[in-house]
Fold each of these.
Amino acid sequence: MNTPLLNERDITFLLYELLDTASLPLRERYREHSRDIFNATLQTARTIAEKYFANHNAKGDANEPTFDGQNVHLIPETKEAWDAFSGAGFLAAGYDYDEGGLQLPEVILRTAMAYTNAANISTTGYLFLSIGAANLIHAFGSPEQKTRFLPPMREGRFAGTMALTEPAQGSALADIRTYAVPQDDGTYRLFGQKMFISGGDQSLTENIVHMVLARIKGAPAGVKGISLFICPKFLVNEDGTTGNRNDVALAGLLHKMGWRNTTSTVLNFGEQDGAVGYLVGEPHKGLNYMFQMMNEARIAVGLGAAALAYQGYNHSLDYARNRPQGRLPSSKDPLSKQVNLIAHADVKRMLLAQKVYAEGSLALCLLASSLFEDQSTAPDAEARQRAALLLDLLTPVVKSWPSKYGTKANELAMQVLGGSGYIREYPVEQFYRDNRLNPIHEGAEAIHGIDLLGRKVGQQQMAGYQVFRDTVGATIAESEGVEAVREFAAPLQTAMAMLDGVTRNLLNVMAGNPDLGLANATVYLDLFGRVTMAWLWLKQAVVAANGLSVEGLPEADRHFYQGKLHATRYFFHWELPETGPMADLLNRMDSTCLDMEEAWF
Amino acid sequence: MNTPLLNERDITFLLYELLDTASLPLRERYREHSRDIFNATLQTARTIAEKYFANHNAKGDANEPTFDGQNVHLIPETKEAWDAFSGAGFLAAGYDYDEGGLQLPEVILRTAMAYTNAANISTTGYLFLSIGAANLIHAFGSPEQKTRFLPPMREGRFAGTMALTEPAQGSALADIRTYAVPQDDGTYRLFGQKMFISGGDQSLTENIVHMVLARIKGAPAGVKGISLFICPKFLVNEDGTTGNRNDVALAGLLHKMGWRNTTSTVLNFGEQDGAVGYLVGEPHKGLNYMFQMMNEARIAVGLGAAALAYQGYNHSLDYARNRPQGRLPSSKDPLSKQVNLIAHADVKRMLLAQKVYAEGSLALCLLASSLFEDQSTAPDAEARQRAALLLDLLTPVVKSWPSKYGTKANELAMQVLGGSGYIREYPVEQFYRDNRLNPIHEGAEAIHGIDLLGRKVGQQQMAGYQVFRDTVGATIAESEGVEAVREFAAPLQTAMAMLDGVTRNLLNVMAGNPDLGLANATVYLDLFGRVTMAWLWLKQAVVAANGLSVEGLPEADRHFYQGKLHATRYFFHWELPETGPMADLLNRMDSTCLDMEEAWF
């Protein structure tokens, strides 16, 4: 069975029917591009993903990296994948031509990475971190730092990491302890330990550029005393050649349930005389800078989760289509032919749920990438501002919803396969194990609920929220004019009004009692995510309904659009109604969890 | 950290406060028993579990069984655990004294196994299957079969398996193809292949007794042509000594995501001249007989899921109590001391959810074991009949609810630990991997929804359902007289009435259109399970409230009872309201899944 990584028809739909990617070449930055070039780029990515990433997804899982005390060893296919991806120019793709880049729009780059994620999320991990680290230096580094580090990072000779978490600190960055001592030459010496650093050591590149959060000695407590440093594994000489080993040592590898081909490391900084670090930007503003990389990584996490959900969906769909199993309840004759699994209503339920989670997640992440694009290259200033506001608001949802429901999709894929889903002889159990990291890293789920409700929704007099309301409202208005989807306008209107009410109530309570107001922020995140996804599905349904009205439509397109319509129906009939109990719980400021005493557990 | 397997206070509560286990010695069969003997037995089980099962839970996961082409190799601790358990008499515990047993009540035996499951579900797998296989022979075997096979099975010299599933058939037993050819000597020769046979080969016992479903040549099609056979790995001579190898060959081991220390096998029967099999009972009635073992296994699966949920809860609770992390939203001072994880409302949510899933699941399974007991030893005939009816009705819930929500509990345990939850350096990720089998084996979830709605609810003029209604009603009535829990009476009443309505509507539709009526049976199973658990939590809350009213109660007991009360509050405020959308969906006979066409995926 040759199971596709994603679904070519859906990619076309998302990029060119749902989003307006085809118009990007009208923008100054992209005038040398065209839809054909975008497609050829994606075709290259898909070929690389199939040939160099999918080939060792199971092998990397079964043969995780080892550390011999000196060096880390990865299976050799990992390096081939890294070389193929960087050799095709993808590590530099987002940069301007004069920086050695391809001036590729963000949404095309991220779609390209959806393929590699679907093929092998573990190997892709090294790539997305390196792209993010380079982008961080690009945005906030000094000219000298850019000159020294960016060319080799774009060429794939250096990789990058984000070194935030410490053994005693998980999501609570305010309390990190790694510290930096200023030196006379303007550099710093770093001392401390970082944990769960993905790609913190490997055998892919000649150097690794760690982006490290640390406190300069004497800095204020909390998040306002955190600075950002570039701290390479090997020092880089003036002439760009690789110099001495820096005082950054691999203390050990961690052994994950999934994502096994990405090293997860404990790193010791400054076991001897301190690791040489270069301050990025101004002191004490490191967390602000790092938020760029974190936000980028959050979208990338959502995208990876979406891609894994898609893989599980595709595999379980193939299985369900080809496996004869039992008969329908109405058929009592044991001599009648068995039906395929897909004929059973409950199997269809599990496939439909996966379809809305996988396709919906991918739509959400590509929308986010499109907003990321628009915030800097949309033609008019207001559009740029609205894109930035909406992206900022939605980032917690983009990170969390695909992570939670993509993982759930993979659980359902396992269930469709039954016993076969539970054994390593089939690929789906690995998807679940891989995906399960996504609700944890880049801020555990609860962090994003607090970010959304405690910061994003209320900030700038709810400007971002207002853009969201307008955007949803526009889709509702549009849907009212489309016969096939009109039925969904009122339920989404109701859900949006419910979200408005809940939001108002929570913001009021939070002003006086933040502990109570934020107690159920995770539920708020889920509620907000469901409304967002209902909107995105309705938006897709409008496009599909319009597509169906074209005369002489090929049968395959008709089925595809019908699938989008029916998946929307599923979302509105099965998933959206659960917002009711959530809103009730939030509106009554349920304090059950808050009130639970430790001694009662 | 010395994390307990279960919770001693809760075991006492469940056995002696919620259930009336203390009165069992009043029954004729148990008159030589006492509460002290029960407790000593459980203490023995706990000690064995801690010493011989917990010791190799991680090791067995990391070193799964291997097959060298001749023999299967398990880590040696597995055999030590088997010997300790059988040496203490637990394999024979349920049998009468004159059969070499301990006449131990079912509920005590199953509580004992909750300890071994919590310590090592994979090693426990061999035991519960062997007990089940022996019980099956005991119930339906001929005197000669009992004489030949039961003594060594009770002594732990022979193990047992259930060999139902075939490569081309998962849950659809009607279509199994293994066949049996009658011989002149009254035995049969079996030919066919079985798959996913747990314990199908191992290095623990001198023989393995496979309980095999097969069709006698010429038998009717479907479930009415299935017979049950005893088919040992080695033939057993007249004098009880082990004879020649039977024609049952291990084709290979399967490699599971979890449960790795239990072999999962593909077995070939009759590669040469046929595997010698002994017909149990009458021809073509095999599935009826096997239902005894399946029902027993279904309760055992629920119990195992409950025990794993409990372990995850205990570990994440320890972690949350001891890990400083961040501050409450109301505390803005970065110099203030960090709080422990458990102080955060969202962490309390994840712990409370685990508490209701784990403790609720264990309560449900011990209730089922108590009903199992009562159906044969309750003093009066009506009580025996009511217990049998209720157990039969609830078996799909007992199998499925702990499997689904126990797995969810383990997912939450991982989330509480964050990054640490995802790495094999901590035990919780294994619990999830182990537990994920439980919603699959012994009938995937959908099978139990169809069993509940399609068979159990309607059968015998809804006699079982009526017993359930009466039982729930009695708890509601009782709760109305108890101040601290009165608030829960009305919501449960409402939920029960909702279930009544849904059940009536579905049965009506099913009579004319079984495909539509059963289309959403999995949702019905969840709805039914939630009402059942709401009842069980209210039942616990009544006991706790009464316990709290005792003067001079020790503080530890007060906290324990408060925990039960607050967990009930959580269940009623957070879990029960989700029945609303479920009932709406079922009442409107939602056909979204049924209507989805294969081509639209």
Amino acid sequence: MQTILIQLDTDNQASIFDRVVAIDSGVAQIFSCAAVTPETVTSLVHGAIFTRGPADLKHTAIFIGGSSAAAGEALQKKVLKAFFGPLRVSVMMDSNGCNTTAAAAIATARKHMPLTSVPATVLGATGPVGLRAAELLAAEGAHVTLVSRTQERAKAAAETIRERVPQAIVVAGAAADAQENEALCQGAEVVVAAGAAGACLLSQGALQRLSGLKLAIDLNAVPPLGLADVSANDKGVTHHGVLCYGALGVGGLKMKVHRQCVASLFEASDRVLDTQAIYEVARRTAGITT
Amino acid sequence: MQTILIQLDTDNQASIFDRVVAIDSGVAQIFSCAAVTPETVTSLVHGAIFTRGPADLKHTAIFIGGSSAAAGEALQKKVLKAFFGPLRVSVMMDSNGCNTTAAAAIATARKHMPLTSVPATVLGATGPVGLRAAELLAAEGAHVTLVSRTQERAKAAAETIRERVPQAIVVAGAAADAQENEALCQGAEVVVAAGAAGACLLSQGALQRLSGLKLAIDLNAVPPLGLADVSANDKGVTHHGVLCYGALGVGGLKMKVHRQCVASLFEASDRVLDTQAIYEVARRTAGITT
Amino acid sequence: MQTILIQLDTDNQASIFDRVVAIDSGVAQIFSCAAVTPETVTSLVHGAIFTRGPADLKHTAIFIGGSSAAAGEALQKKVLKAFFGPLRVSVMMDSNGCNTTAAAAIATARKHMPLTSVPATVLGATGPVGLRAAELLAAEGAHVTLVSRTQERAKAAAETIRERVPQAIVVAGAAADAQENEALCQGAEVVVAAGAAGACLLSQGALQRLSGLKLAIDLNAVPPLGLADVSANDKGVTHHGVLCYGALGVGGLKMKVHRQCVASLFEASDRVLDTQAIYEVARRTAGITT
């Protein structure tokens, strides 16, 4: 029986990126659906679960994607609601690569150092990737400072993380420019930049000025970069005593995690690959055993 | 040369159900087209018939689906018109599963008993499945009472059947509620319920009250069921001396018929799998040889 | 690693013709995108180039199609702009079959005779196929008379050809009817008709009246034909001393060229199969070695 991945994409064109990765993960058939909405998704899910028998449903799975993580989460809720008892298939949500990117970034950090009680700052933390990076850092026990342009959005994001990770230690901070961002990175051992493309979050020389900083990860691949001191290709390079990773430096692990996750959907019919589950795959893929 | 099934779906999202079944029928490639209209279908059909040579056209076929049987029939007409002599491919129409479901239901009945001159009542007979179930019963020689909520719609459906099956013996009846439905089932040896989801057509105890009834089939899988005495999972179970089938009890044969039909499209380039042809497949699949 | 062809189609339904040919060219996976616009194409291209590594990008390619050659050319420009250095994939443009049809027609002519300095007239030369046929004749060194219904459009087309083929010898002519077309064919050794479906460009007996004419190709397959003396099935048949090809007579080579071109996309990651490159494939496919 052939493996079938049903791509439910919230954009008007189903992501080519996700389709190529699906094929490279060994999926035999990819069924792409574009412009999927919570209103239209239920009959698509029923089509997936009412054809093959329960014992064969592990050969069918659902991938939720698109450029909006919020739209993807809304879709995921409806997908999970459409299942009936054993009539269910595994589901992965990775709109805009938010989960695989955040998971690869934090697994990269975790590979270099334990994160328990480590002070860590996430810049651009209210976007889809930043929010998930902060969540994963908090779940690893880091003491997270979550920075956004407004205190209101930062607080809301911190609250979301506390709901998902009850033991989370998170404080919210607002920063209007690179200087204010830098102030909120003082004392951090880990800094992750996940701002919008083209937003410079820490200016040149910041790595030197931030004493105590051990690891800096910039997830922005489009110049101007998020951390002026880190280049997109940096992959464990040391600048001024700080281990640096750029977006492309994290990208190899991200791609592996994405492929591993898709492949693992077909091991059972009840996998739900959300942020935490994808992070578990990233940890294994990165060779983290502790 | 690979087999290609071209799915022409009248809905905004091409049915996942039909795509999965196509793959499980052994089709190598499925090309899905959504929101297909009679206005746009001709160039799609030309794309199918003008590529491979006439001798190879049996490796390409068309499946017409979607939630509306009327839209599917309109599409089928245009598809057949778009062919030129030997430049044609096989076609199957099964919008909303109307043909495979009706064919599986009546083949299930036929397997248990000859239907010639047998009094049979179809409830909810003006919907896509009910109309086709009544047509197939009439074609088997049953004396069909076709029941709808209004006499007008019932008469129109009976007329449609007489056009398709000239020798049909069909009478139209109107029933406003379960009690009136039950009155129209008096004397029937076979009752098929094909009403809308959630409409109770015969109330509890009806099977006991209907003397002479031998076989009852309820095609509604969503509670409340169409026949209160029959459960969705019933598969040849006897209740009060009546052999009973629920929607899931018929479902296994329906799925087999669907797959067999898709596979048979590729045996020649001129198959047209409509109600009667799909019923022939259902008879063979059910092992009916007489 | 599987070959993936990404079909970017400018119509609301992605061409079935192009999808079938892709499969018959040996492509493992075809990803079809409909209603693609220059505004939405960049992220689709990024999805294609940011997944597989540069060394593997030759296993992915892009096919641009749809019913409008102008829309296809606009898309091609944006596709080529979206590449970054080695992050690119091979691209073929064949909206409405314009390039493969024109290439097959002129390769057919070239197979029979050298074209250098040969007087040649293209009728209906401002349509997508006619313009490209005229361009390819000019590139072969023929002295081309390019005919349209208005002098203005004919001149613009001649100018376009001079931009693409600097050494081109092209004159523009206007003809309102078959008689005026015939006057512009006087002295031509080659006539190619590429008018709109149903437009008769040369009336019955023209082949006899045109002294010096050696080869006539009519690319219109829908009656009434473009050249009344040539039938759609003619394939190197001689009428009144003139070698004749109809649309179906050229069609076999066109299909082979289309399949060869698609297959050749996967030989490298930097092929751009436009009019001239597709003609090179047509020459090789037709066995022209000089």
Amino acid sequence: MKVIKTNKALRGKLAFLRSQGKSIGFVPTMGAFHEGHVSLMRRCVKENDITVVSLFVNPLQFGPREDLARYPRNLKRDIEMASAVNVDFLFVPSLQEIYPEPLSTFVQVGKIGNILCGASRPGHFQGVATVVLKLLNIVQPCVIYLGQKDAQQVAVIKRMIFDLNIPVSVVICPTSREADGLAMSSRNIYLSPTERRDAVVLNKALRMGARLIAFGERDGGKIISKIKKLILEGSSASIDYVSIVEISGFAPVRRISKDVLIVIAVKFGTTRLIDNVIVKVHGK
Amino acid sequence: MKVIKTNKALRGKLAFLRSQGKSIGFVPTMGAFHEGHVSLMRRCVKENDITVVSLFVNPLQFGPREDLARYPRNLKRDIEMASAVNVDFLFVPSLQEIYPEPLSTFVQVGKIGNILCGASRPGHFQGVATVVLKLLNIVQPCVIYLGQKDAQQVAVIKRMIFDLNIPVSVVICPTSREADGLAMSSRNIYLSPTERRDAVVLNKALRMGARLIAFGERDGGKIISKIKKLILEGSSASIDYVSIVEISGFAPVRRISKDVLIVIAVKFGTTRLIDNVIVKVHGK
């Protein structure tokens, strides 16, 4: 595996490989790798001739009061983990490389980026979409691999790719979980031991919501109330949102009649965690 | 020359040609071709293996009170003109092909898109940048050819390409002019015979401004006053703006110390025309 630091060097290598007809797959990350990231890399390596992983902690997607400064960074370990699964190129650009000047041009993501996590984190999805577009333009992959854990990010990026005719396929990989069901996240290391134990309630609550739908409940409001109750009873958490939405458009669903996504964002102490579950609805 | 109507058909043809190592040049247009367009096509044909010209009257860049409905359209003549200079593909997508659904994602162009023409035409440059990015993603050319006539459009697109790392070079071609100096524009056909005669003042005023700078005038304000006076004396025009700006950033220049652009927008009756001149400043 080669660690590459500049756009120019990466483009040079990839232009050559592309001219040889190699397929290029891409996994964008902010580093601090866990099994979730590694599962994306494995799948990308399996499905493409060349796998590019980017590691860039993107300031544009952090709010002024968020955790940019303390976001976990461990390049040495990340290099080992990516290398172990046969990633070809780990692209680790500097801030200067990605933002040589303050941007004038941004991707504006519309309504889908302004609800839920977008409402709690103003500008977050504009920052995500803008950097992902920049990285797509640098790497020019055939396929981009994204994790379902960040469901709204997936929806925003898919919509951007559709709206802007970006020539790339999207593969969504399932959320990797700890043995007790907690969704893997680079932010889990912020949790105190008590918070870590409490955080299991997220997955438990989502599974309960899915079960209610499976057993015939179609009233979104009722399901949301029960999920909130379970979360607040079983932990010291404060709820940012619990919502049931359409899978691609993220429009809120009151009466469930087709497949939906239950999405939640909850704070344990100062740590904000998100999780979601796709619920298939049969007999439509 | 092949006339192509769908993204899919165009992408298919170009993917094949790209795999053969052919270079692809691209000229985006709104049709109603004149010598300005044709000069871009000629240069593109000369410098690339394959020339793609798009012809799409983009509603997104017209304001609600602008001339979208009456914008000149003459596909038959346009096909003949493009064919005559050996364009390979004339891409003429339908509205449905470019906007299958109302967009959620847009390109937000920042300050450079909100001044001058952007102030007079709110949303115009967002519409331009968004459709140009979509077309770039469909065509994936090595080079895009733009006309200097639309100087602010050039600046907005160059900035977008820089900010978003779009893998394309930009070639700017000089403004084509009628024998009497009027910049060629598809909108010139709107002019009444009197307005057409009056419109010559635009180029005259710009040349006077350039001469003042060449003779040592460095006070932007004084030059602008003289240009405005000349335009208002010699015609029935109403001035939208006359400004002296930096060439790439379009920041207004009060004291001229390096190369500048004099840009003007003037209305003759209901027809709004723009023109500009680049003025080199020696002995910096």
